[in-house]
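Let's practice the habit of predicting before peeking. Look at the sequence and jot down your guess about where helices and strands might fall. Then scroll down.
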Amino acid sequence: MTAFTAELIGTALLITMGNGVVANVLLGRSKGQGGGWIVITMGWAMGVYIGVLVAGPYSGAHLNPAVTVALAAAGRFAWDLAPGYIAAQLLGAALGSVLVWLSYRDHFQVEKDSGQILSIFGTGPQFPNPLNNFLTELIATLVFMTAVLHLAAPKVGLGSLDALPVALVVLGIGLSLGGPTGYAINPARDFSPRLVHALLPIPAKGKSEWSYAWVPVLGPLAGALLAVAIFSVSR
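Done guessing? Here is the structure:
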């Protein structure tokens, strides 16, 4: 398996499981409807576990443009490889979103709450405040990337043996910092699914809220780069 394919498949698995658990909890007449935040955070953590387990041996399992950019900035990953990794991550996230839609297509056809539908594809704030929302994503990704930098040292990514630790890190972030914005901590996790939401023929989907989309892209990138800066100084 090439690194590109590994990043694509790993990210697709991550989003399939992550957005899938949100669909299971939110969509009407789903068997998991009403499962709550603990179920959602566990589902996302398992999505990370599966994605890293599969992609780790072949690409280092970045599965996240913020991770790729941060590792390159830290000198642990070649900048010329970054565009290919990020392209694979964006495509994988889109594929995962489509797979969730296919799995829950009957539910999407009858769901009337556009907000619930959008929540399955993209993150959103409980209190719309761009600066605070940006800081929340920055802080959550700072925690995530700090853990990744210690797990990955001195490698260029996360190997399959690191699947469980990084999944537990994501679980902890979701439980502790996920409330305000839904903890994107990954630009591909939000941008590609939001684009898929805009394109799919879902009857009551409403708007894709692109005015917010910069927050889960720039917040994680800023948080990851700040983690690299702090890590570099502390070494």
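How did you do? Residues 3-234 form a domain with the Glycerol uptake facilitator protein fold (CATH 1.20.1080.10).
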